[in-house]
Amino acid sequence: MGLNLSYNLSLTASVDQVRKIVLALRQIALDLSFAQVDEFVELQGEACYFDMNDREDPNIFLKLRGLKPTSIAMNGMSWKDSTYLIAFDTLPGQGCETAAFGLATHGEIQAVNDWMWTGFCKTQYASNPEYGGREHFIRCHLALIKMLDEAQKLGVHCEVDDEGNYWNTRDLFELTAALSSQNIFMATTIGAIKDAIDPSAIVQAPILDYPNFEHLEAEGNSDSTSPTKS
Protein backbone atom coordinates (compact mmCIF):
# COMPACT_ATOMS: atom_id res chain seq x y z
CA MET A 1 0.00 0.00 0.00
CA GLY A 2 1.05 3.58 -0.56
CA LEU A 3 0.96 6.33 -3.16
CA ASN A 4 2.20 4.89 -6.46
CA LEU A 5 3.00 6.07 -9.94
CA SER A 6 2.52 3.31 -12.54
CA TYR A 7 3.26 3.53 -16.25
CA ASN A 8 2.97 1.46 -19.41
CA LEU A 9 5.22 2.43 -22.31
CA SER A 10 4.80 1.35 -25.93
CA LEU A 11 6.44 2.09 -29.26
CA THR A 12 6.89 0.66 -32.74
CA ALA A 13 10.52 1.12 -33.76
CA SER A 14 13.81 -0.51 -34.72
CA VAL A 15 16.38 -1.76 -32.23
CA ASP A 16 18.65 1.20 -33.01
CA GLN A 17 15.82 3.68 -32.45
CA VAL A 18 14.90 2.07 -29.14
CA ARG A 19 18.51 2.08 -27.98
CA LYS A 20 18.78 5.82 -28.70
CA ILE A 21 15.54 6.53 -26.82
CA VAL A 22 16.53 4.51 -23.75
CA LEU A 23 19.97 6.14 -23.66
CA ALA A 24 18.32 9.56 -23.96
CA LEU A 25 16.01 8.74 -21.05
CA ARG A 26 18.96 7.60 -18.97
CA GLN A 27 20.71 10.92 -19.61
CA ILE A 28 17.55 12.76 -18.54
CA ALA A 29 17.54 10.80 -15.26
CA LEU A 30 21.16 11.82 -14.71
CA ASP A 31 20.32 15.46 -15.47
CA LEU A 32 17.44 15.30 -12.97
CA SER A 33 19.91 14.22 -10.26
CA PHE A 34 18.22 10.94 -9.39
CA ALA A 35 19.81 9.41 -6.30
CA GLN A 36 20.96 6.46 -8.41
CA VAL A 37 21.01 5.74 -12.15
CA ASP A 38 22.31 2.32 -13.14
CA GLU A 39 24.09 1.48 -16.37
CA PHE A 40 21.78 0.57 -19.23
CA VAL A 41 21.33 -3.12 -20.00
CA GLU A 42 20.84 -4.61 -23.47
CA LEU A 43 19.81 -8.27 -23.63
CA GLN A 44 18.81 -10.52 -26.52
CA GLY A 45 17.39 -14.01 -26.90
CA GLU A 46 17.65 -16.42 -23.97
CA ALA A 47 19.52 -13.79 -21.96
CA CYS A 48 16.15 -12.00 -21.62
CA TYR A 49 14.32 -14.94 -20.06
CA PHE A 50 12.89 -14.38 -16.60
CA ASP A 51 13.54 -17.05 -13.96
CA MET A 52 11.87 -16.20 -10.66
CA ASN A 53 14.09 -18.71 -8.87
CA ASP A 54 17.36 -17.14 -10.03
CA ARG A 55 17.80 -14.62 -7.24
CA GLU A 56 21.44 -14.12 -8.22
CA ASP A 57 20.49 -12.63 -11.60
CA PRO A 58 21.38 -8.91 -11.42
CA ASN A 59 18.82 -8.15 -14.14
CA ILE A 60 15.92 -10.16 -12.71
CA PHE A 61 13.71 -7.13 -12.05
CA LEU A 62 14.35 -5.63 -15.48
CA LYS A 63 13.40 -8.97 -17.06
CA LEU A 64 10.28 -9.09 -14.88
CA ARG A 65 9.14 -5.67 -16.04
CA GLY A 66 9.77 -6.64 -19.64
CA LEU A 67 7.34 -9.57 -19.49
CA LYS A 68 4.26 -9.38 -21.70
CA PRO A 69 0.90 -10.59 -20.33
CA THR A 70 -0.69 -13.01 -22.79
CA SER A 71 -3.77 -14.48 -21.10
CA ILE A 72 -5.67 -14.75 -17.84
CA ALA A 73 -6.51 -18.24 -16.60
CA MET A 74 -8.10 -19.64 -13.45
CA ASN A 75 -4.65 -20.19 -11.95
CA GLY A 76 -3.38 -16.71 -12.78
CA MET A 77 -1.81 -14.67 -15.56
CA SER A 78 0.34 -16.11 -18.34
CA TRP A 79 3.41 -14.17 -19.42
CA LYS A 80 5.72 -14.13 -22.41
CA ASP A 81 9.45 -13.53 -22.09
CA SER A 82 10.99 -10.74 -24.09
CA THR A 83 13.31 -11.50 -26.99
CA TYR A 84 15.12 -8.16 -26.83
CA LEU A 85 15.31 -5.79 -23.89
CA ILE A 86 16.99 -2.41 -23.41
CA ALA A 87 16.51 -0.82 -20.00
CA PHE A 88 18.03 0.71 -16.89
CA ASP A 89 17.05 1.02 -13.25
CA THR A 90 16.94 4.15 -11.11
CA LEU A 91 16.31 5.35 -7.60
CA PRO A 92 14.61 8.76 -7.78
CA GLY A 93 15.42 9.59 -4.17
CA GLN A 94 15.68 8.26 -0.64
CA GLY A 95 12.46 6.65 0.52
CA CYS A 96 11.24 5.85 -3.00
CA GLU A 97 11.11 2.46 -4.60
CA THR A 98 13.32 1.93 -7.63
CA ALA A 99 11.87 2.95 -11.01
CA ALA A 100 12.99 1.07 -14.12
CA PHE A 101 12.70 2.52 -17.61
CA GLY A 102 13.14 0.63 -20.83
CA LEU A 103 11.49 -1.14 -23.73
CA ALA A 104 11.17 -4.83 -24.56
CA THR A 105 9.89 -6.73 -27.57
CA HIS A 106 8.61 -10.29 -27.66
CA GLY A 107 8.89 -11.70 -31.17
CA GLU A 108 11.44 -12.28 -33.87
CA ILE A 109 13.50 -9.17 -34.48
CA GLN A 110 12.41 -7.37 -37.65
CA ALA A 111 13.26 -4.02 -39.22
CA VAL A 112 10.75 -2.61 -36.73
CA ASN A 113 9.04 -4.28 -33.79
CA ASP A 114 6.36 -3.47 -31.25
CA TRP A 115 7.97 -2.63 -27.92
CA MET A 116 6.47 -2.23 -24.45
CA TRP A 117 7.37 -1.70 -20.81
CA THR A 118 5.58 -1.83 -17.48
CA GLY A 119 6.94 0.17 -14.57
CA PHE A 120 5.89 1.56 -11.24
CA CYS A 121 7.33 3.45 -8.30
CA LYS A 122 5.98 4.07 -4.81
CA THR A 123 6.98 7.63 -4.01
CA GLN A 124 4.98 8.18 -0.81
CA TYR A 125 7.72 7.32 1.65
CA ALA A 126 10.06 9.90 0.17
CA SER A 127 7.98 12.21 2.36
CA ASN A 128 9.59 10.91 5.56
CA PRO A 129 10.68 14.11 7.36
CA GLU A 130 14.12 12.58 7.88
CA TYR A 131 14.59 12.51 4.08
CA GLY A 132 13.31 16.03 3.49
CA GLY A 133 9.57 15.67 3.99
CA ARG A 134 6.98 16.93 1.54
CA GLU A 135 9.48 18.92 -0.53
CA HIS A 136 11.61 15.83 -1.08
CA PHE A 137 8.54 13.81 -2.06
CA ILE A 138 7.48 16.48 -4.55
CA ARG A 139 10.93 16.55 -6.12
CA CYS A 140 10.98 12.77 -6.53
CA HIS A 141 7.42 12.46 -7.83
CA LEU A 142 7.80 15.33 -10.29
CA ALA A 143 11.12 13.95 -11.52
CA LEU A 144 9.31 10.75 -12.53
CA ILE A 145 6.60 12.81 -14.23
CA LYS A 146 9.34 14.67 -16.10
CA MET A 147 10.83 11.37 -17.27
CA LEU A 148 7.47 10.32 -18.70
CA ASP A 149 6.91 13.73 -20.30
CA GLU A 150 10.29 13.44 -21.99
CA ALA A 151 9.54 9.87 -23.08
CA GLN A 152 6.45 11.17 -24.88
CA LYS A 153 8.53 13.85 -26.60
CA LEU A 154 10.80 11.04 -27.83
CA GLY A 155 7.81 9.31 -29.43
CA VAL A 156 6.96 6.80 -26.70
CA HIS A 157 3.28 6.32 -25.89
CA CYS A 158 2.74 6.54 -22.12
CA GLU A 159 -0.26 5.32 -20.15
CA VAL A 160 0.09 6.59 -16.60
CA ASP A 161 -1.79 5.83 -13.39
CA ASP A 162 -0.77 8.49 -10.88
CA GLU A 163 -2.41 7.99 -7.48
CA GLY A 164 -1.53 11.59 -6.68
CA ASN A 165 -3.38 12.61 -9.88
CA TYR A 166 -0.61 15.03 -10.82
CA TRP A 167 -0.16 13.44 -14.25
CA ASN A 168 -3.68 14.51 -15.25
CA THR A 169 -4.06 17.76 -13.33
CA ARG A 170 -0.53 19.19 -12.87
CA ASP A 171 -1.95 20.45 -9.57
CA LEU A 172 0.55 20.45 -6.70
CA PHE A 173 -2.18 21.10 -4.15
CA GLU A 174 -4.02 17.95 -5.22
CA LEU A 175 -0.78 15.94 -5.14
CA THR A 176 0.15 17.07 -1.63
CA ALA A 177 -3.42 16.54 -0.42
CA ALA A 178 -3.26 12.95 -1.70
CA LEU A 179 0.08 12.50 0.06
CA SER A 180 -1.27 13.80 3.36
CA SER A 181 -4.32 11.56 3.11
CA GLN A 182 -2.20 8.49 2.36
CA ASN A 183 0.25 9.17 5.20
CA ILE A 184 -2.57 9.57 7.71
CA PHE A 185 -4.35 6.48 6.39
CA MET A 186 -1.22 4.33 6.58
CA ALA A 187 -0.32 5.56 10.07
CA THR A 188 -3.84 4.86 11.33
CA THR A 189 -3.99 1.44 9.66
CA ILE A 190 -0.57 0.29 10.85
CA GLY A 191 -1.28 1.66 14.32
CA ALA A 192 -4.51 -0.35 14.49
CA ILE A 193 -2.68 -3.50 13.37
CA LYS A 194 -0.04 -2.98 16.06
CA ASP A 195 -2.74 -2.54 18.71
CA ALA A 196 -4.59 -5.67 17.59
CA ILE A 197 -1.69 -8.13 17.67
CA ASP A 198 0.76 -9.40 20.23
CA PRO A 199 2.67 -6.35 21.53
CA SER A 200 5.91 -8.34 21.30
CA ALA A 201 5.41 -8.98 17.58
CA ILE A 202 7.56 -6.98 15.19
CA VAL A 203 5.60 -4.91 12.69
CA GLN A 204 7.56 -3.48 9.78
CA ALA A 205 6.23 -0.65 7.65
CA PRO A 206 7.94 2.45 6.23
CA ILE A 207 5.41 4.75 7.91
CA LEU A 208 6.72 3.56 11.30
CA ASP A 209 10.06 5.19 10.48
CA TYR A 210 8.45 8.63 10.37
CA PRO A 211 9.41 10.66 13.46
CA ASN A 212 5.88 12.11 13.37
CA PHE A 213 4.17 8.69 13.10
CA GLU A 214 2.23 9.10 16.34
CA HIS A 215 1.03 12.55 15.28
CA LEU A 216 -0.22 11.17 11.95
CA GLU A 217 -1.91 8.26 13.73
CA ALA A 218 -3.60 10.59 16.22
CA GLU A 219 -4.78 12.86 13.41
CA GLY A 220 -6.34 9.90 11.62
CA ASN A 221 -8.03 8.62 14.75
CA SER A 222 -9.30 12.11 15.55
CA ASP A 223 -10.83 12.44 12.08
CA SER A 224 -12.53 9.05 12.38
CA THR A 225 -14.16 9.96 15.70
CA SER A 226 -15.18 13.51 14.79
CA PRO A 227 -18.94 14.04 14.43
CA THR A 228 -20.16 14.26 10.86
CA LYS A 229 -21.40 17.67 9.85
CA SER A 230 -24.92 17.78 8.47
How would you sum up this structure, described in words?
By secondary structure, the chain is α+β, with helices and mostly antiparallel strands. It folds into two domains: 4-169, TBP-like, CATH 3.30.2030; 175-225, no CATH class. It is built from six helices and nine strands. The chain has helices spanning 15-31, 60-65, 133-153, 166-169, 172-196, 213-225; strands at residues 4-13, 36-37, 41-44, 68-73, 76-80, 84-91, 99-105, 113-122, 157-162. Strands 2, 3, 6 and 7 form a four-stranded antiparallel beta sheet that branches. A three-stranded antiparallel beta sheet has the order 8-1-9. Strand 4 (68-73) and strand 5 (76-80) form a beta hairpin. Helix 5 crosses helix 6 (213-225). The model has no long low-confidence stretch (mean pLDDT 92).
Largest sheet features: 4 strands, antiparallel
- How far apart the termini lie comes to 32 Å
Helix share bin: 25-40%
Structural class: alpha+beta
User: Which spans of ≥5 residues are poorly predicted at pLDDT below 50?
Assistant: none
Q: What is the CA-based Rg, rounded?
A: 20 Å
Assign an overall shape. globular
Number of domains as seen in the coordinates: 2
Number of helical regions: 6
Entry summary:
The protein is of the alpha+beta class and 230 residues long. The protein has helices at 15-31, 60-65, 133-153, 166-169, 172-196, 213-225, and strands spanning 4-13, 36-37, 41-44, 68-73, 76-80, 84-91, 99-105, 113-122, 157-162.
